Amino acid sequence: MDTYDIFKKLSRGAKFKRKEKRNILLINSDADKLNKLPNTNIAENKLQEVKMEQVNENFEEHDQLAGYEITLLGNMKADETGKKSKKRKLANGKNDEQKRVLLEQEKVNHFRNLHNINVVGKNIPNPIISFDDIPIKQDLKDNIKTCGYYTPTPIQMQTIPTMMENRQVLACAPTGSGKTAAFLLPIIYQLQGPQKKGFRTVIVCPTRELAKQTQRECERLAEGRGLRIHVINKISKAVEQFGPNSSKKFDILVTTPNRLCYLLKQEPPISLENVEWLIIDEADKLFESGIHSFRKQLEQILVACNNGRRKIAMFSATHTPVIAKWCVHNMKGLVRITVGQRNAATDTVEQELLFVGSESGKLLAFRDLIRKGLTPPVLVFVQSKDRAQQLFSELIYDGINVDAIHADRTQTQRDNTVRCFREGKIWVLICTELMARGIDFKGVNLVINYDFPPSAISYVHRIGRAGRAGRKGKAITFFTIDDTVNLRSIAHIMKQSGCEVPAYMLTMKKQSKKEKKKMLSSAPLREDITTIPEYELQRRAKRRRRMQNDLQLKQRKIIERDEQILRRKKKIRDMMKFSKKTKKVSKRKDEFKKDNKSCKVK
Ligand SMILES: Nc1ncnc2c1ncn2[C@@H]1O[C@H](COP(=O)(O)OP(=O)(O)OP(=O)(O)O)[C@@H](O)[C@H]1O
């Protein structure tokens, strides 16, 4: 049987368009190899496999090339072509039951299409239309209502029934679209009530602020169920509280990878053997490579969660090919759920790029915005802790309630700042990348990227702090002549969300891989944020240096004086010892003399 025969046999009944030559050619080339196989049946089976692999590869390739923009329409078309042939069969006298199933499936596909839900995987549960569609008890339904959730968001529609069927999930949906409740509800439903087994669910988040927020949301949704939900506050206390010798009266742990790994390294370590759900929030952040990589810790956690029934669910608004590949290889029965376009900004935020010329122009532009009137709350992103502090020192005298949050502040200070911002006591919060992911400040009206974001992904998350849960928001990104390297990718994101962007930005030179890596590993050098004139700064620096020198001189003198005192004391001690010795010797001499005399007398 030659290649042509095999191909003819396999493609019986199928029509090929001329345009789709590429696939046929690929199959032919592989079929050539298979022709040499002795058994034709095996060859046919193999050819079928090759064909499937080829289709999958093409899918993957498309996935990567189009920046993971697999639209549901594409799926629908594939489904429809399949269904058309099925329908034809039905017309030829198949039973009503099959007809009903097909119609049902068509409805489901239409529903997913309507809500921009794209799914990849086998036997995926149907999405829910309302929270009443899931078999949860009345108390949980009441809690959902108390939270103000009346209809599920698209990510919740598909993720909740999928996780409730114990399927592992890789979910991607825009910022502020309700991913947290999408994973919390199935967990709370499955855990039912408290048990004495130790942690049964672990939720890993990249920052402590996000962990606390997730714990709060979990407590609200699980109200009245008696579940014990913990974040690790004091690490030393946690060793005893959650260690193997503890009461094991806890159910859900929300933590950062750092803290959990610390507990896993203790002797004896914390036990995660009863963990059934491992949720990884902001998954692409935890999968990032680089100096601040969480990847090793994630591996440790995965090893520690060694229960045979352990399932993983990953969530983020952005995903990279690395994470998708990892999930495909490590998560059995995986369901990939994507809402909208992957790595896209939320469409509820109006985006603007503002050219400010130079670094000093940023402060002028910012003050101009204040003058025109800012509607708080406002989040301002800068690239480093130092710059957050510098901007804070500048704005504190501008008559606005401003504060800064960054990793150099103590945990209590950070918690207080977040609380005050939520309560409206702080109007403008200056922050670093620390607050870019996951943090849900209700009603943030404006995000200002004072320093240009290091990547398009960072941009998506930063501006996603506004326009949450369907509300409107605005994002203004300052850029100078030095920020043009990254401008193109961000301009494309803006264009994708329907914002107006100057045409030249879209055709700028693409950022090379080297440049991308450099941007991510270290922030670009920028002039300090200050309005103090240069000569004044130099004068202050000189004075500071002089003061430091004086201080050093003083310290040296003190040290010298102390050493001198010590030397003297030692000398005195030595002299005392010597005099004691000489006294003893003379005493002995006297005694000897006395003895001698008495002998002579005798
Ligand atoms: N079904 C719902 N109806 C109305 N509001 C909801 C619903 N689900 C969640 N929300 C609200 O939407 C807001 C954003 O939710 P959440 O923080 O889970 O978003 P997210 O998708 O995780 O965002 P990010 O990607 O930034 O982490 C929250 O204030 C939450 O209370």
TrEMBL record:
Residue ranges of domain Helicase C-terminal in the record: 348-509
SMART domains xrefs:
DEXDc, HELICc
Q: What is its EC number?
A: 3.6.4.13
UniProt short sequence motif Q motif, positions renumbered to this chain: 129-157
Q: Which UniProt keywords apply?
A: ATP-binding, Helicase, Hydrolase, Nucleotide-binding, Nucleus, RNA-binding
**Gene Ontology biological-process entries:** maturation of SSU-rRNA; regulation of gene expression
The UniProt record lists the keyword Hydrolase:
yes
Q: Which segments constitute the DEAD-box RNA helicase Q domain?
A: 129-157
**Helicase ATP-binding domain segment(s):** 160-337
Q: Does the keyword Nucleotide-binding apply?
A: yes
Q: Where is the sequence biased in composition, kind Basic and acidic residues?
A: 588-602
Enzyme class, one word? hydrolase
Task: Output the InterPro entries linked to this UniProt entry.
Answer: DDX52/Rok1_DEADc, DEAD/DEAH_box_helicase_dom, DEAD_box_RNA_helicase, Helicase_ATP-bd, Helicase_C-like, P-loop_NTPase, RNA-helicase_DEAD-box_CS, RNA_helicase_DEAD_Q_motif
**Region feature Disordered, mapped onto this chain:** 575-602
The cellular component terms of Gene Ontology attached to this UniProt record, alphabetical and capped at eight, are:
cytosol; nucleolus
Give the Gene3D superfamilies listed for this entry: P-loop containing nucleotide triphosphate hydrolases
Q: Which GO terms describe its molecular function?
A: ATP binding; hydrolase activity; RNA binding; RNA helicase activity
Q: Where in the cell is it found?
A: Nucleus, Nucleolus
Stated family = Belongs to the DEAD box helicase family. DDX52/ROK1 subfamily.
User: What is the protein name given in its UniProt record?
Assistant: Probable ATP-dependent RNA helicase DDX52
According to its UniProt entry, this protein's organism is Agrilus planipennis (Emerald ash borer)
